[in-house]
Amino acid sequence: MLKTRFDNYPKGRAFSSILGDLLGKGIFNVDGEDWRFQRKMASLELGSVCVRTFALQIVSSEVRDRLLPLLASVSTVDMQDVFRRFSFDSICRISFGVDPGCLELSLPISEFAAAFDTATRLSASRAAATSPLVWKVKRLLNVGSERELRKSIRLINVLAEEVIRRRSNLKLGSSASASASASSSSPSSLASSATGQDLLSRFMGSIHDDKYLRDIVVSFLLAGRDTVASALTSFFYLLSDHPEVEEAILEEAARVMGAGAGAIPSWDQLREMHYTHASIYESMRLYPPVQFDSKFAVEDDLLPDGTFVGKGTRVTYHPYAMGRMEEAWGSDCLKFRPGRWLSDQGTFVPESPFKYAVFQGGSRVCLGKEMAVMEVMCVAVSIVREFQVRTHHSRLPLKFAPASPPPSAEACPFASPAGEAASSR
Q: Which residues bind heme (predicted)?
């Protein structure tokens, strides 16, 4: 699906139809030449050293100036909410050069983030409909969830256009226009903080269609927000039940960075943290941010095991299930064991992307993989050096409590991350 018969397994029209109103012709919702063009452009930018350096600068400032001070000010907090706010601020600053300022728990989430949440949730719910005809009729009549979806997408479009206008003004050197668009009369509270290094400014050098740029804006948000937040939430959920892993990360950070607290790791330091890298990968093996992915067969095909796939068949692979297969990972496949990713010399050794499909593989392998892993590692190391994060497991209503001895994860090995409480180390 991802390599040898890649051309026979596109996303397909059914998928594009479900997410078309939200994603338009963004890279996650197209096939063929549109996909190849966007992927080539994204590959050139995301693979450059200057973009990765810029991204780490943004992430480091978010961690140092906002995330750590916020955690230091509380004893109990919903870490999933914190990570969603953090990742939204970070991806907006990296991709568009604007700062939503979401990482303030005293403030409501920005209207951009709220609209995006609603739109992604309702778009995904279309796939759960008993028939595509159901949501299509509701969209035609503009009723129920489809009316709410249309309202959210309309707001996303307004705010995306504002972001694009600001980037255009910056490129034209029109600081006065940029300031005017950020005035109180603006439909958004986004604050500009760009210097022209953001990804959108780079893309605007080759793309001059605002509708196309809008689709790219939404695609970047989809790629960089919930995936990073999910990975961080799952990691600290597991770390809470495995203090030995936490201690090993602390020891590695002290060896690489020095014993002093408060430092944010550099790119070179992160590259030396093999155990931390392994811990992040092990966490995503058990809790991949994207749990399954589907394609549609263009023509009849025969899978390597002899399974016949008819033309038009939906074929799904499931990284969540693949990461828990005993035949692939051994009898301890349900255990959180970072050591499985390390060589005898303690060096991180990745698995085949077709065994560990968290970042997909082949032609569709995630272009932002290194940037995302860097972001998660930077946050993880910085928090672990400053705080002890402990989960509070509970039934409804969900509550969060200060650090305490956690119950065994074996009681519910397939549970979704519930929430974490942070206490100062």
A: 366
Beta pairing partners, 86:
none
> What is the token pair recorded at 262?
């408060």
The token duo for 185 is 């009369």
Instruction: Tell me which amino acid residue 272 is.
Output: E
Any idea which residue has 């997410």 for tokens?
A: 19
Task: Answer whether residue 416 shows pLDDT above 60.
Answer: no
**Chain centre distance of CA 314:** 25
410/421: higher pLDDT: 421
Map out the domains of the chain with their CATH numbers: 13-225 (1.10.630.10), 227-424 (1.10.630.10)
Q: Higher model confidence: residue 212 or residue 414?
A: 212
Interior angle at CA 361, CA 51 and CA 41, nearest 5? 35
Sort 220 into a burial class: Cβ within 10 Å, 0-12 / 13-18 / 19+: buried
Bridge partner residues of 421 (DSSP): 390
DSSP letter at 74? -
Residue 333 labeled ligand binder? no
Measuring CA to CA, which residue among 425, 396, 390 is closest to residue 409? 390
For residue 251, the Cα-to-chain-centroid distance in whole angstroms is: 28
Pairing of strands 308-309, 191-192: unpaired
SS3 338: helix
Q: How far apart are CA 255 and CA 3, in angstroms?
A: 40
3-class SS at 294? strand
Contact 111, 155 (CB under 8 A): yes
pLDDT of residue 412: 27
* Cα–Cα distance for residue pair 360/356, rounded to 1 Å: 8
Please say whether the beta carbons of 42 and 35 come within 8 A.
no
d(CA 324, CA 330): 9
What confidence tier does 206 reach under pLDDT thresholds 50, 70, 90? confident
- Which among 286, 153, 127, 311 has a CA at the least distance from the CA of 221? 153
